[in-house]
Amino acid sequence: xxxxILSFSCPDRLGVVARYSSLLxxxxxxxxxxxxxxxxxxxxxxxxxVFDDRALNVxxxxxxxxxxxxxxxxxxxxxxxxxxxxxxIVLAVSAQDHxxxxxxxxxxxxxLPAEIVGVVSNHELSRGLVEWHGLPFYYLPxxxxxxxxxxxxxxxxxxxxxGELLVLARYxxxxxxxxxxxxxxxxxxIHHSFLPGFKGAKPYHRAWERGVKVIGATAHxxxxxxxxxxxxxxxxxxxxxxxxxxxMIHLGQDVEANALSQAVRLHCEQRVLxxxxxxVIL
Amino acid sequence: xxxxILSFSCPDRLGVVARYSSLLxxxxxxxxxxxxxxxxxxxxxxxxxVFDDRALNVxxxxxxxxxxxxxxxxxxxxxxxxxxxxxxIVLAVSAQDHxxxxxxxxxxxxxLPAEIVGVVSNHELSRGLVEWHGLPFYYLPxxxxxxxxxxxxxxxxxxxxxGELLVLARYxxxxxxxxxxxxxxxxxxIHHSFLPGFKGAKPYHRAWERGVKVIGATAHxxxxxxxxxxxxxxxxxxxxxxxxxxxMIHLGQDVEANALSQAVRLHCEQRVLxxxxxxVIL
Amino acid sequence: xxxxILSFSCPDRLGVVARYSSLLxxxxxxxxxxxxxxxxxxxxxxxxxVFDDRALNVxxxxxxxxxxxxxxxxxxxxxxxxxxxxxxIVLAVSAQDHxxxxxxxxxxxxxLPAEIVGVVSNHELSRGLVEWHGLPFYYLPxxxxxxxxxxxxxxxxxxxxxGELLVLARYxxxxxxxxxxxxxxxxxxIHHSFLPGFKGAKPYHRAWERGVKVIGATAHxxxxxxxxxxxxxxxxxxxxxxxxxxxMIHLGQDVEANALSQAVRLHCEQRVLxxxxxxVIL
Amino acid sequence: xxxxILSFSCPDRLGVVARYSSLLxxxxxxxxxxxxxxxxxxxxxxxxxVFDDRALNVxxxxxxxxxxxxxxxxxxxxxxxxxxxxxxIVLAVSAQDHxxxxxxxxxxxxxLPAEIVGVVSNHELSRGLVEWHGLPFYYLPxxxxxxxxxxxxxxxxxxxxxGELLVLARYxxxxxxxxxxxxxxxxxxIHHSFLPGFKGAKPYHRAWERGVKVIGATAHxxxxxxxxxxxxxxxxxxxxxxxxxxxMIHLGQDVEANALSQAVRLHCEQRVLxxxxxxVIL
Lengths: 282, 282, 282, 282
Prior knowledge:
The structure is a homotetramer of 282-residue chains.
Chain A: E1 3-11, H1 16-26, E2 30-39, E3 44-52, H2 60-74, E4 77-82, E5 88-93, H3 98-108, E6 115-121, H4 127-132, E7 137-139, H5 147-160, E8 165-168, H6 177-182, E9 187-191, H7 203-210, E10 214-221, E11 231-238, H8 245-268, E12 272-275, E13 278-281
Parallel strand pairs in A: 5-6, 5-8, 6-7, 8-9
Antiparallel strand pairs in A: 1-3, 1-4, 2-3, 9-10, 10-11, 12-13
Helix pairs in contact in A: 1-2, 3-8
């Protein structure tokens, strides 16, 4: 028995639920999970469903073709994929490896529904850890001058490895607008603040100066507009007046790793659908 | 335009989603929200959907009759109700009124999707607050000897007021098995601990003795088996070694009021479906 | 036996702890609680201690005089007060009464270490609730033109009632710079966002637009620089894509009431010391 | 400039704060941090202070001797240690390595104020990861019959490595009473439930059966009474009806690693003082 995930969004209208579910029922596709949501403001419909083939009476190819026809009619954006066909992830990292390490540990433990296929970095520091996990490590140093070229190399590696998602696991370089557009919806970043507070550089230093009592981290899709991409997850942690910037950086490592890991998991399970500048998590 | 909430559960089988949604689509019922869930262990299907009548082509009576036929076929337990037909709540309270006060405040602010219709208490203390809110207050004192009779009076008040849900808002009497059964699925209690830790009496005292670092509160349906009913919500709050029992009691008031208010809201929005000793929150 | 709270801050130097504690020990003041903190950046020392008079060998007047001499030498800012001499609070409220109601309920339950002495409002709506609690209610309507005069009336009421702390419990008027300065360190506001995110008006609307996954509330001292005052407490609550602005407003009521109640309690227990634009909570 | 941490507890009495602080002031020890606490029930005093030698006018040996005399008089239990003299930790692990990996990552990043000196395991699985971090790995398999002998080997390794703290980072063997007593106050365990709920085996399975809405993890000192040792930290995470046992196990990994890392940090910074079956965290 094999299971499949179908996720789509389309303009809302009468009978959308009946439309897709009758198609599946007719084909003998057995639904085991469904979530859907209609945005009352944009009147857009979002759905994620999981079904299996225990009673399927057509081939998956036939089912896909039938669905394609309905999807065209509904004007839907969609993904249909076997749940054991794991998304291929490339990680990007700079000097700090706590997010990298958390992702690799979860992946090795079978707790991440994805295939990590390689790591790129502008530092050599993480090579040992990455290679110990049996993964290729690409050292791609960067300077102001070589940035266009280095970004080209990132894209080449991503393409060569058949990457489907680029995870910026504390990769401390600002991506060019071109790269952001190239990877729209296919790149997730972790920002070490509770956005929209403390956008930009050195958020922990500014949190200390402002005297906040809670710090946080935000995982979001990368867009050309820095730290403004659609938010997937946010995690927070209380602090107090004794929490120095250095301690915030240490405490923040857990919060960042958790927020990013959750976001990657949600994306890979096809639970994250874009709704303009916002996300629907199903 | 009027909206309706349909919630049901039934044994899972191929095509349940198609079955109910086709029925709604044929009748012109416009779905605006759906959540469903299949328990992979019990293979039971749970659904909550909201639809409106903007395009309805039959009367609601006809729709109900059609649905009744499908529900019988699916062997479903269900509720179908207009979303502006607010559930009628009776509150029970003892000496401490923080949960009572929170519920009344939310109700008065329009933040509770319910109609509070009266308050019963084994103390006179809250009469003023209740009557100030324009609600009838029933003083029903109780002793060991008069308990059967007093519980009868509670039921009479509940029935007289057309009550649909009894909320034990820190009502510090243990209900008899008979009353628990009578009100099965229609009575919510707040327990001032993070169940299953510290079941029974004086949970904050025992939390202090054990030296825990987090306290909590649990809202659950009342069952004859004390503090073992299906859990609806749990809220927690960190404490430290300086937190005396008295402070826990004060901090706990917020946690209890929040957990109970959330549970009442979820119940009244028909979001809570029973799944054996567990709940599904849709 | 009576207990006292001494809190002070001063430039740090060798022997501060020995200095104040020897003075107390010599007078037979029995210390039961102490917290202190030195800001490593500003090199300022902060202390809060509670002692009782079980073994006191001088009068409290004598002790105060001795302490005054030491405080002068240390260049300290300080407060020394019996813990049963509760701070007198005046509340200000507009149309929404959830924070008002939470504070009144806690106060009546003995869970707030303060004396609430009156309520001012630019609306008549809360009169009934306030008067039911046996408190004077001052209706002080305000227009753009009458604002200076109305603020004068607030100050008169505050002074007449011997107010020591003004709590803006969702008082939706921006105070003038003059009033802010007049009440510096003696006025606490609740802002319905997780500052510094969404400063200013309509934070829940902007939170919805940005698609954040957590909302919050911030209690802070009032300063002329709007929403920039020293932060005392921040509380948060997760939300998701289904959370409409209206629901945020309802959920936010709990978060706001909790954050504000905590802040008032901390202030009244002399636990909040100012450290520039930041607070030290002891 | 070097800094030192002094922590002690003793029966409370008049002038304890003056006594230790005068001693430090006389020696020119510059206090930078202090927390203390008196348990109002047991009337025991607890203190942690950090001081530096910028103005020290005696040797540390002399200061220690002077303090020893005062400590004897106060009947105090104490530790005085340079803050750069990091505690030596031995980790014990079984098949699951998420806690191990989190501790190693933090240690390598300088975020753990301790020296990890070796890892023992009853499985070979983590050897690669441990050796990649440059640490000795001791494979000590165990059966029912060889348990006494294997525990002897653990103690030998611990002693050989000059271990000061044994951290059970998901070590899934129950230690014998003898070993628990031998390591009293020097061994920290992580239990994957929110104690006292779900003591013993398979807590996530039982959490699922009970239908709780929040899961947690508890780090505590090891005692002969299983899962009853003094609690250091507890962390929680909300779940819902969709959370399968397998997902709980995955989500729990973050909670467990965070709770354990925090507990180890607090212990190594001498912030955890025992107060009977409870802890004081300063």
